[in-house]
Amino acid sequence: MKQIAILGSTGSIGVSTLEIVAAHPDKFRVVSLSGAKNLELLARQIRQFRPKLAAVADPADIPQLKELLAGVEVELTGGVEGLCAVATAPGVQMVVAAIVGAAGLVPTAAAIQAGIDVALANKETLVTAGHLFMNLVEQHKVKLYPVDSEHSAIFQSIEGHRSQDITKIILTASGGPFRETPLEKLQSVTIQDALNHPNWSMGRKITIDSATMMNKGLEVIEARWLFDAPPEKISVNIHPQSIIHSMVEYIDGCVIAQLGTPDMKAPIAYALSYPGRVSTGVKPLDLTELSGLTFSKPDLERFPCLGLAYRALGEGESMPAVMNAANEVAVESFLDGRISYLQIARLIEKTMDAHQAHRLGSIEEVLEADRWGRATARDICTTLQTGRCL
Ligand code: NAD
Ligand code: MG
Q1: 208 CA → ligand 1 middle, Å
Q2: Is any atom of ligand 1 closer than 6 Å to the C-beta of 39?
Q3: Do the Cβ atoms of 195 and 207 come closer than 8 Å?
Q4: Which residues, given as ranges, of the chain have pLDDT below 50?
């Protein structure tokens, strides 16, 4: 029986993780959970899964959660310390890191420092602090299992192979809802258009990142750290059917890919059950039902955010953290109706232009770069809104 903690249990990944747990009560037990604003859902999860400990992001929400849980025996906590307590609760053997954004950094680091294996969904962790986290993983001898479908596919495609034989890592991307939208129409796309992802059902932030392809850019950076691969060995193919989840090319010209119906339950289950596999309820793939698999190179004019991510990776140091922070501000501003879709990339680029990359020696310094990126992006956002920057 594997004892697990879920950071961000009320989100898209968290809910899918609990579905796997519910389907395999003989294999997994939830020891601790955390959520943020959706207290009703968190309370329902606590009633169903009976963790010993649960945390909310804001300690001020604890009394309301307590009320929702009248009669249920559970310890409630909150704030960053509370999230860290969830990540390191006694008995936890694996933490599913599924908080969205930079808020996931500190509790994920706490888990690693406590020697606990991590199933990593929160890609911002490696994007903003890849070298620090990979050092921590090595130092504390823990295992880091990718949950992101592309990285899970790569992880599955490199099993049993030598890293020196890899010539290329090829991440696939659906191209999102605007893959074929005429460029001049991108100016007027709406929030609803951008949230309408063709293949995957995900949280709002990552859905917008998929539309801009910043998601793929973040995944390129994530792959750089997870697989210790230099940027020139990581490429992106647009594959609108999302059937091949990523591929690895070897020196002999062979390419190994992982295929499946697009459903996050599959990579989540693999991270939880590695090296074994468990049933997921995901529809098996019937290749004869598919009309075809197509691939193309991404157009950086259409998807400038992908180019910005390669630039951040090239400049390194604090630049990816600043880019990530600017992206979070840009996506939030777009979802609040304050900037247009095309202004997302402009806001990120201007924030990066204003930044001088410098070395980050600790998670506190990463968070400082993150704060700087957010504050600068917010300032630039105000000038974008008033039209002075356009
Ligand atoms: P989501 O928005 O659906 O859920 C986010 C979770 O984080 C929720 O439980 C929320 O309560 C919690 N949270 C939000 N802000 C918080 C804060 N400040 N402090 C503590 N908790 C907070 O997001 P998601 O789609 O489940 O994605 C989670 C992570 O997994 C992201 O980093 C995303 O990039 C990554 N990811 C998601 C998918 C997917 O299919 N959804 C795929 C690959 C990777
Ligand atoms: Mg992905």
Answers
A1: 13
A2: no
A3: yes
A4: 389-390
